[in-house]
Every structure is written in C-alpha cells, then in structure tokens.
Design brief:
The chain is mainly α. It has two domains: about 425 residues, Clc chloride channel (Orthogonal Bundle); about 140 residues, CBS-domain (Roll), CATH 3.10.580.10. About 60% of the residues lie in helices and about 5% in strands.
C-alpha cells in the first residue's frame, strides 16, 4: 500500500513538472478525476457505515430501524457508549480535525487554512464517522463524506503543486463530489459547497465550474456502482399526491417557514449549548467525552421510545423522513421526536463524536413540516391539506435556514426525493426561514460574505484600482517640476525650497528624463563635505527611474510604489518614455480609491 502511494505521488509530481495546466486540463480533466475518486470514496464510505451498523448494532440488538423498540435496554446504552469511546480515542490520538460535523471543517479549511487537509483525515474521518453512525449515533453522512472528498481534492492539488487558490477550489470540488454522490443530487451537490461558505446569500463563483464537473462524475460513478438513484425513497402512491395547486395553502406554508425558524433556533442553540457544556467538562478527558455523549444519546432513544409510535432517533434519520412523508406518525409522536432528535444529534456530535448534521436536519425539518401539515388539516379541514407535501417542503426549508444554503437545499431535496412539484412552496419556506434566522447558523466557520474571507484578502482593493487608469486621475497629479542635470546643488536647493513636491524628475537637454531625486537624497548630501557650487544634480540623482504611463492601472502604480519604496512616480509619454507628463503621488492614488469606493456604495 505504501509503495503504491509513493508511485502515485511520484506520477502526479512528474505530471505537474511536465505539463502546463490550461483551463480545460485543470477545470475539466482534473475536476473529473476528483469527481471519480470522490464517487468511489462515497461508495466505500457508505459500505463502511452499513458494515459497522450490521456488526456493531443490528446483530447484537436485533434492531434494524431507527427505533429502540424490542432491543435490550442495556445494549442500547452500552453500544453507543463503546462506539463513542473508540471514536474519541482515535480522534484525539490521530486526527483532531475529524471531530464534529465535517462540513464546518471544510469551510474552515477554505477560509483559514488555504484549502489544506491532511491526508490522514481522509481515512480517519471515514472510520470515525462510520463507527459513530454504525454504533447507533444520531449523525448523518453529509459532513463526513464532504470532508473525505475535500481531502481527496486538496491532496491532488497539493501533489500537483497547484497554487493556494487552486487548492481551495479543488477542496470545494472534492467536497461537492462526496455530497453529490452520497445524496444522489448532482446539481444540488454542485451548488451546496459554493453556497454554504457564507452566511449571506452568496456563492463562491469561481468554484461553480469545477464543482459542477466533479459532482457530475461523482454522481455517475456512485450510481453506476451502487445502482441507487434516490437518497429518500417515496412510495409511488404517495409521490403522485405531492403537488401545489391551491394558492390558499401559501398561508400555511408561511406558517411553516416561521415554525422552521423557531425549530432552527432551538436546534442550533441546543447543539452549541451542549457543545459548550462538554467543553467545560474538565473533569472528563476529551477522549472520553464522546462515550458520555453516546450514553446520553442511548438514554434519549429509550426515553422517546414509548412516545414515538414507531419512530426513533438512531442513525441519520432517513426513516423519520419517510415516515413523515408517509404520514404514519401522530402529532404527539412528531413533537416528541423533534425534541428527541435535536437532543440525540447534539449529544452524539457536540460531545466530540464524528458525523454530519445534514441528514438529522432534514429529518427534523420533515417532522416540523408534517406537524404543521397535520395540525392545519385538523384545524381547517376545508383546505384539504396533504401533510406529505408539508413534510417534504419542511425538509428543504428547515435546512436552508440553519445551513444558510437556500438554493442548494431546495434543489437537493427535490433531487433526493425525485419530486419537483413543490418548488414554489419550497422556495417560500426557505426564504422565510433565511430572513428570520440571520443571527444563527449551524456552521460557525461560515463568514458573512466573500469580503470577510481570508481567502479573498486584497481581491476587492485590487478590483477597484485595476478599473482606474492613470489617465483618469492625471488632472489631480502635480505638474512636473523638472530640474536640469547640470544645475548645481545650491541651485537645486533653491528650487526645492520654493516647491511642495517631494520628488523631482531630472532631465537633460530637450527635457529628456535621465533621473530623479527626492528630499531624502538632499538630506544625505548634507552629511558630506561638499562645495555647493561644484556638485551638480547629476552627481546625486538616481538614474534608474520607475515610471508609469497613462494606460497603466492604479493597482500597478500602487504595486510599483510599494515595491520601490517611493511615494511618487513620473508619468511619461508611451511613445517617448523620456518625456515627463506629470508626477503622480501616492496620496492621489489613495484619494482615487476612496472616491471610487464611495461611488460604488452609492450605486454610481
């Protein structure tokens, strides 16, 4: 295995040295490679989960679904505890980055770590998440598979010695590959990672193309191997009833958006409140805390059992989604399971376990939607409401607000369930939840927008100055105070005394530029024993002059000033580089930048 890895790394290094990556090679071929590997990794990860679930949980307890009914209560407490113990030890010993829900780690890596993911995280995140979910933990597959795919993309970019910017984009495309494959959602998966980076309604535009390509190849690879095309299977007789054809139902959907906002607030605050509680639990070592979280999750599973009417809180929650859409859960069971799923997920992951929050959030959203739908149908039978429609809309609308990814959430839910007939109410609930939840988010590594991301430091300043040419500010530049190279030091000092400039272009006959000097150069002359009438300007000027032309951007001007350590540069004629037209000073550049920003803010 080690020899194979060395050969692959050597092949990639040779490729990076022998090939110049053009746009097609980089964004199509390499993104396709990332997608293919991500699709295979998603399938392998899913197999790991099914294997651990079968041997760690199903066989000992006899439980194959998400409910604890019929299981020995001692095993329901013991197995998640042992799973948490093993996961905590692996994480704290080998890869602390594998702790928690992986999407947040990917977002943090993009913004703060230049897209770097250690290779060991690829394997250990998959292993610890499979153990967490397989031992009954209330966690999803989205975060882990995103982090695994991100590690693949980051490793390929690093092996090819690509830039930090490119590594960040391949980190995104790798994470997208995992999500698009695992949830059978090529379009939603492609949009999810570029959108989830920011709290505001923003996309990482540069990542869209590589993410679309990698998601397509990952989805095609995963479905070809697994034969699966839907993440959430809906019975055909239920699927045919999902529709939106009565505008009066929008009032109830509006109420669903408000309910999602309340449930989202509860979910995020309980999740991070329990996280803070475990952080303050200093009497218990960090590697033991996931074991306590697993035990408490087992307590919740046992406690909600008598109230759940066939539902449960084990695993990701796909059974809860299907039951909510099928309408098999009562209003009382829905209320109990919403609270229990929030607690179970928080105990599993916030204690230091490893798993995703995407699937549990979809399950909570489905139950909130079913609850509102059943309640409205009971209160106003004349509306003829189908609770299944509200369950499906609740899935997308709930996750849109807690993840701050409304567009991706709407599309992903439609692709996951195979139903596109509820797009209008899905969008309404997603937007309402987004508007009411601006103060909290499930992914704390998010930043408000691109301008707040360390990945974009300097981008916006450069864009502003690149759009301004020297010719645009030439009217504000000082007329050049030219001094002939044969003028004596005494004569130069007389000219300088009557001027406000700090830099003075030096010219020969015909006003041809031959050098430049500054006030600093004159100060240096004062320390020498010189005769003022014998020293001429040519003796102390700099003959290598940094100049700019009318067509240069102010970004280039600023860069030259900073690199040369000067505060003014001569503007010369493009056809005659020795003809001085003006002297451009740093304060003129700064003033132009400020004026341009003010105009942009005013929409001018």
């Amino acid at each position: 295995m080690a020899a194979a890895k060395r050969r692959l790394r050597g092949a990639l290094a040779s490729l990076s040295q022998s090939a110049e990556f053009g746009s097609f090679t980089k964004w199509v071929l390499l993104s396709a490679l990332v997608g293919f590997v991500g699709g295979v990794a998603a399938y392998a990860f899913k197999g790991m989960i099914e294997l651990t679930r079968e041997w760690f949980f199903a066989r000992p307890t006899g439980v194959t679904g998400e409910e604890a009914a019929g299981a020995d209560w001692r095993l329901v407490l013991l197995i998640p505890t042992l799973g948490g113990l093993l996961v905590g030890w692996i994480i704290q010993k080998w890869a602390p980055e594998a702790e928690g829900h992986g999407t947040d780690s990917v977002v943090r890596s993009y913004h703060r770590l230049k897209g770097v993911v250690r290779q060991r995280v690829i394997y250990l995140k998959a292993l610890t998440s499979a153990l967490t979910i397989g031992s009954g933990g209330s966690a999803g597959q989205e975060g882990p598979v995103a982090q695994v795919g991100a590690g693949v993309g980051s490793s390929i970019a690093t092996a090819l010695k690509l830039s930090d910017r490119d590594r960040r984009l391949f980190l995104m495309s790798g994470a997208t590959a995992g999500v698009g494959a695992m949830f059978c959602s090529p379009l939603g998966g492609a949009l999810f990672m570029p959108e989830v980076l920011y709290r505001k309604a923003e996309f990482e535009g540069e990542a869209i193309i590589p993410c679309i390509i990698s998601s397509i190849f990952a989805y095609a690879t995963f479905t070809a191997i697994s034969g699966e095309h839907r993440a959430v299977e809906i019975a055909p007789e239920v699927l045919t009833t999902l529709s939106f054809d009565d505008p009066t139902h929008l009032v109830v959907y509006l109420a669903l958006g408000i309910a999602c906002a309340f449930a989202g607030w509860l979910y995020t605050h309980v999740f991070y409140g329990i996280h803070s509680g475990f952080d303050r639990l200093n009497v218990l070592p960090k590697h033991l805390r996931p074991a306590l979280g697993g035990f408490l999750m087992g307590v919740v599973a046992l406690g909600v059992g008598p109230l759940a009417a066939g539902g449960g809180v084990f695993f990701g929650g796909y059974g809860l989604m299907q039951a909510s859409i099928a309408g098999t859960l009562t209003i009382g069971a829905l209320l109990a399971l919403i609270l229990a799923k929030i607690l179970a997920t928080s105990f599993t992951i916030s204690s230091g376990g490893s798993g995703g929050v995407f699937a549990p959030a979809l399950a909570i959203g489905a139950m909130v939607g079913a609850l509102i739908g059943k309640g409205a149908d009971a209160l106003i039978p004349a509306l003829e409401i189908n609770p299944a429609c509200f369950a499906l809309v609740g899935m997308g609308g709930f996750f849109a607000g807690v993840a701050k990814a409304p567009i991706a959430s709407v599309i992903m839910v439609s692709e996951m369930t195979g139903s596109y007939s509820l797009l209008a109410p899905l969008m309404l609930v997603a937007v309402v939840h987004m508007m009411l939840s601006t103060r909290w988010t499930l992914y704390r590594a998010q930043v408000p927008g691109p301008i707040d991301s360390p990945a974009h430091v300097g981008d916006f300043v450069v864009d502003v100055l690149q759009g301004i040419k020297v010719s645009d500010v030439l009217g504000e530049a000082r007329p050049p105070r030219l001094i002939h190279e044969d003028v004596t030091l005494k004569g130069a000092m007389r000219i300088v005394a009557d001027s406000h400039e700090t830099h003075f272009p030096v010219v020969a006959d015909g006003d041809q530029l031959v050098g430049i000097f500054s006030l600093t150069d004159l100060r240096r002359i004062f320390l020498m024993d010189v005769v003022e009438d014998m020293v001429i300007v040519r003796d102390f000027m700099h003959d290598k002059v940094t100049t700019v032309t009318m067509s240069d951007s102010l970004h280039e001007v600023q860069r030259l000033m900073t690199r040369r350590g000067v505060s003014a540069v001569p503007v010369v004629d493009e056809e005659n580089p020795r003809k001085v037209l003006a002297l451009l000073e740093r304060n003129v550049v700064g003033r132009a930048y400020g004026d341009k920003l003010a105009a942009m803010k005013e929409g001018g």
